[in-house]
Amino acid sequence: MQSYETMSKEELQQEFEQVKAIYKEYQGKGLKLDMSRGKPSTEQLDLGLEMLDIINSKSDMKAENGIDTRNYGVLDGIPDAKKLMAEVMEVTPDEVMIFGNSSLNTMFDMVARSMIFGVCGDTPWCKLDKVKWLCPVPGYDRHFAVTEHFGIEMINIPMSEDGPDMDMVEKLVSSDPAIKGIWCVPKYSNPQGVVYSDETVRRMANLKPAASDFRIYWDNAYIVHHLYTAEEGKLLNIIEECKKAGNPDMVYEFASTSKISLAGSGIAAIASSEKNLADMKKTITIQTIGYDKVNMLRHARYFKNAQGVLDHMKKHADILRPRFELVLETLDRELKGRGVGTWINPKGGYFVTYQTLEGCATEVIRLAKEAGVVMTGAGAPFPYHKDPQDSVIRIAPSYPSLEELKDAAEIFAVCVRYASLEKMLQD
Amino acid sequence: MQSYETMSKEELQQEFEQVKAIYKEYQGKGLKLDMSRGKPSTEQLDLGLEMLDIINSKSDMKAENGIDTRNYGVLDGIPDAKKLMAEVMEVTPDEVMIFGNSSLNTMFDMVARSMIFGVCGDTPWCKLDKVKWLCPVPGYDRHFAVTEHFGIEMINIPMSEDGPDMDMVEKLVSSDPAIKGIWCVPKYSNPQGVVYSDETVRRMANLKPAASDFRIYWDNAYIVHHLYTAEEGKLLNIIEECKKAGNPDMVYEFASTSKISLAGSGIAAIASSEKNLADMKKTITIQTIGYDKVNMLRHARYFKNAQGVLDHMKKHADILRPRFELVLETLDRELKGRGVGTWINPKGGYFVTYQTLEGCATEVIRLAKEAGVVMTGAGAPFPYHKDPQDSVIRIAPSYPSLEELKDAAEIFAVCVRYASLEKMLQD
Lengths: 427, 427
Hints:
Two copies of one chain form a homodimer. The two termini of chain A are 22 Å apart. By secondary structure, chain A is α/β, with parallel strands linked by helices. Chain A contains 14 helices and 13 strands. In chain A, α4 crosses α11 and α5 packs parallel to α6 (141-149). Chain A folds into two domains: 4-44 and 310-426, Aspartate Aminotransferase, domain 1 (Alpha-Beta Complex); 62-304, Aspartate Aminotransferase, domain 2. Chain A has an eight-stranded mixed sheet with strand order 2-9-8-7-6-3-4-5, sandwiched between helices. In chain A, strands 10-11-13 form a three-stranded antiparallel sheet, covered by helices on one side. In chain A, strands 1-12 form a two-stranded parallel ribbon. Chains A and B meet through α5, α6, α10 and α11 of A and α5, α6, α10 and α11 of B.
């Protein structure tokens, strides 16, 4: 395919007329498609349906340790669920605490606790003049929304295919005590699908923070969310690496079953050091008598163990894979070699990220919208919604049907060509 | 029965010898009984078992408005659950938001939000030199634990059979802008079982707070938890009364199904004004994508409406009533007229409160423990665990079996006599 970069102004103009015609044709179809939401499809939700039968009126409602899951109590989760999530997270049950239906909520609460009560005896962040946070970009919009909401100053850290720029992270973390945290989605990162390299994880674990209450927020949201094999999502164990590095308290690892069992009714977990867990529990024991143990039991009984989770995730992958491949094939066919942007082929997770020419993302998203395709808003994967180069677009292929996705991906590709040509003809 | 007050020193000494002998006999039995926990019994939990069958793999998982309860989304709860809880709380669905499994958690989060972000645009409490809170006593230990944890100064407000001392509440709230809240359990109060009188509710709704961000935390924990008839628990609607008084934003009402369906796996709700709900949601939309909607659907489908809840609560009452009556009969038989303390006969809720002679509560609880009966710790129903008169003992009859309760109540009565005689003989 001829790259636009090698075309003359005339050729570009001619190409633009053609692309406009194709675009207009799509626009005429009056489609209503949505590639904006990282939600499981109905087919995927159906995979977990039998889970709803596992706990019924005939069930033994006692956890492994004999406690009645229907009653009050047990702050850190029933042993059955701790064992399951520990196996999935490759830590010991003692290193895990189980929560309610939302890992985002556990992260929010962690920041809230740090603001009001401080971390392990350090000054509560609300008493400090300035709190800063490192944000690998592009990243997860809801992470950035949390730190923004708490008035924390966010610093962009560029991502590569190995993870965040560790030179920059090391320099900042070791020199500025106002930096209290970093958001990481280390496996199949949101939105690029990057798996942090071993070197990245080791350098992360070996950080020498200026602040004793600096913590890595390791959101392992896609821990078993492979499109192909677990091998391709292989990630060093940050809890282990932090221990080896003499930094056992520097990390909180988050996970949940939201995109494993049911998106709104899963269980969430945190893995961390004994010291960190004890520190958290000082406040959580005041906050609640305990999280939903019946739902914990439901999960533990249904999945049985980590292998049960992995087997189940293969069914998710069978539904997701064709959707991802359709999008990637369309990008390959329509855009590869045209010099209009780049993307990474993810091996798991929920997104494909397209990087347009500088200054084109907003226009692509606008064009797509006018042709009936809703994309995630421009700037969403950046702190303060500001994409400094206006070039990152998050594509979420999970929710639409394959038929819808075919049109949506093609329209997207046309919009990328359209916006790129507009820009090139202007320059 | 002869009152100890009318006995001579000799008669008291003789009585003491008798009581000591009875106590010793009980002690010799080596019993292990527990009247400390306000937990539903296994029999009660069994009442809700069929609820676990209501949602199964064959169920239509869509809420009334067509959204799939299994997926992400819907911040304030599915309409089915809002309708149910609104009916129970006697408000409109628009005035209600549904949460996870713990109303305590919703209260904690409300205080946390107020600390960090402020209430409806007012200064965040963490920026103030001093925040104070009114605590009707005796009250719920976990309420006081929340305000204590946030470093809020708690002020005791005496309770009568009509509710908190409203002269004192009015005076304090109208004169001190540092007072930001009051804890209330208005129906079958924890631990006395008092139902606030109409006058108390009206005076509460007509408060003229010095602080614009003063809020009544109206924890209607026992909203349908009648031992006899709903009539006896009749309570004016605080949301209505606050509107009438021109104070629509002054109250948050909390409720949950914890002691209706399953103690650890219910749903919680807040009712409040549109302005307050909007203010809360500004933060909650950052905190979570939404609470467990499958569990909301489970509750809405199982109970259907408020009448369904009331019918179900009659079954709870049938289990609880004999337990309460056994305790109250024992107190009547063993202690009435002896001049060794007072109690109120509750018509609902989870507790009986015994008020000993001044300075005897700790000793009664110690004696009971040594005879094998665990009671709630002395001072627990007071801020900072300090019962200024060392006289309030919370009795929780729900969890033990009737047989256990018979022994436990009798041992308790003997311990009250024992400690009272000790004190009288010392004086």
